[in-house]
Protein: Histidinol dehydrogenase
Amino acid sequence: MHIEDLRTSAWRLNQRLKYIAQRGQILEGEYEATVREIIGRIKEEGDKALFEYIKRFDGLELDQDTVEIPYEELEKAYEEIDEETRQALEIAHDRIRRFHERQKENSFFVEEEGVILGMKVQPLERVGVYVPGGKAAYPSTVLMNVVPATVAGVEEVIMITPKPNPYTLAAAFICGVSRVFQVGGAHGVAALAFGTETIPKVDKIVGPGNIYVALAKKLLYGVVDIDMVAGPSEILIISDGSVREDWVAADLLSQAEHDELAGAFLITDKEEHAKKVVKAVYEMLKNLSRKEIAQKSIEKFGTVFLVEDLYQACQVANHIAPEHLEVLTEEPFKLLPYIKHAGAIFLGRYTPEALGDYILGPNHTLPTGGTARFFSPLGVYHFIKRSSVLYVTEEGFRDLSDHTKALAKAEGLEAHWLSVKIREES
Amino acid sequence: MHIEDLRTSAWRLNQRLKYIAQRGQILEGEYEATVREIIGRIKEEGDKALFEYIKRFDGLELDQDTVEIPYEELEKAYEEIDEETRQALEIAHDRIRRFHERQKENSFFVEEEGVILGMKVQPLERVGVYVPGGKAAYPSTVLMNVVPATVAGVEEVIMITPKPNPYTLAAAFICGVSRVFQVGGAHGVAALAFGTETIPKVDKIVGPGNIYVALAKKLLYGVVDIDMVAGPSEILIISDGSVREDWVAADLLSQAEHDELAGAFLITDKEEHAKKVVKAVYEMLKNLSRKEIAQKSIEKFGTVFLVEDLYQACQVANHIAPEHLEVLTEEPFKLLPYIKHAGAIFLGRYTPEALGDYILGPNHTLPTGGTARFFSPLGVYHFIKRSSVLYVTEEGFRDLSDHTKALAKAEGLEAHWLSVKIREES
Structure:
């Protein structure tokens, strides 16, 4: 792990951050032509192109009948997975659901003389959830992406996944996914965006995926809505040295094991503590099953920032705007008012990120790579949309017509002016 | 205007909608290389490239000192515009502000045994508002884009505009814009996204613009957040024949005069009424100052849909998901529960769109081209972001640790498992 001493030279922060930011830089140019072609063909040819791509990329011979995973298989998966995992999934589902219920929004109306104004809040009708196959095929992803949609009231949640496994299917069963299709990649995303003879067209696509999936989502933004533009994930730990070094080290590694490009960062005002954490990280790495991935992440991007005090620690944290922020200090709540930018804030020694990833209830789909400055955790608010409602009586109209005409005149829009004028004359 | 009779052949709706949708199809390929180059140069060279582009595209010799419009000029513009417009702008500002105050969201915390979970809601720190120059330089645009940001609590609102005029500057003064820069185009958008020596970097860019601006915003989505992907605007009127034909016609034209690509659509169950509306449209067109624009829009895209009854009218409206929907019927509230997709819903004969465009209070920046299926009117919710907050006591941790380990094991993430296990042993 690299150590950056900001106590004497705070300007080095930006240099290091610039380096760290590189891991998020997507070589879009390289893939874009391919993804554009896939999108274009799915749009024009529908199923025909879809099944061709499934054959080419996934090596599978699927058709209109076999691309959909029947509901019975979900139920079967649910029954066949081990009791311990099933129970944990049920509890996680219940807790996630309860937390997200709090995010619901209501329509409102306000009245004043001659005018009623309102905002009508409605769920999206149909959404698509992308669940990756391969090394990142996680049942927790299913729960975290589907539950906010169902809580919002979305009628139909379509899940696509290139490689279903019993855990993800069981999770889909638990949270009541409407339909599951065995398809992934940019072709799967495009099929959801335009609809094909077999895949229903959706209004929004959410969920993580590889570079092809991420790029397809970004290119199709506007045709459908998407959740966010996601990059490699990261954890940042603020520590005052009051928490055991091996706990801190384990938390750093729990991020590093995700991805070679994952970022694990520590900010502390205790130099000795920092050294012990680094030592513990390398010690633990030795026996880790995902050692190769975690080691690359730690060596390439792992960073300790030494700061003067916890106030500077918060400043640095805000500058980084991390996806996950752990506050491992004696009095973690004391720092909360100073934290402006972070996807999720884990307070205190008994709140390791892993608890939040799986079971506590808040969403684990979080803004990465500094986008916590402007993006939010996935939530019910991502699955609703609003319409303004306006009603004016004749009296209300007469109170406001002159001002409306004045503004229409200032903007040179005569028909706007006329649509008011003509009503005044009646 | 084209008349489509859906009473006998509803399938023709899709054909016509496909034709109408063409107007929103952006020839991205044509402009994308140019816009990408501009973005790349602004990112690398900052001010140097910025002032070069200002010279090339706007024909202006500006530098670090002259690109910013001093505050005194805003004040001066406010004082110098005519009293009637100034008063109308003040009243509009006040009403917009009051409506948007209702959209504010609060942080929340929930507690249960051993666990505190919360969502911390905070305003974005700095946002950029794009205000077009030329034919679309409207003071109402300034109010509608800035007010939701200031109500949300955004500290700094940076406005850029290639061609300031007294009305837009006065509007900027009224709603308390922080700084105004005279720059536009893709180079202006890129400057806001990356920051230059002179232009401050922002977290989000909102506001309408031409194809270069729209494309730059889309390409920079992820570097910053953006409001929405906007296309040409449209109005759809549901009429039962109870409202005067010339009123209906004026409302259709108030949309058509915006843009040759604007869409003006009427749905009615009264054939005679439809014919009279069409006649009134052509009659009014004759003397309209923006006749050329409005006529092209009406002739190319203007459409009357004849339906069986008002229930079918709502179905068609939902299919179109219009930006503006006027319900000109005897009992407009009766249809409200059937309307699923629309940016703004104007109920009743005394609520022409123009009132909503300027003065009523709800935002006039609305989702276009069918995106009302998933996008919302611009609002306070576009200028805030959320962070999850999680805190667990030792007892709370012990209640949940086994389930967390079970899920970490199922997903094969050993360091996640370890970060829990290690805390159990203490």
Q: What stands out?
A: Chain B has three domains: 2-25+231-361, 28-226, 393-424. The first strand of chain B starts at residue 2 and ends at 5. Residues 393-424 of chain B form one domain. Chain B has a mean pLDDT of 94.
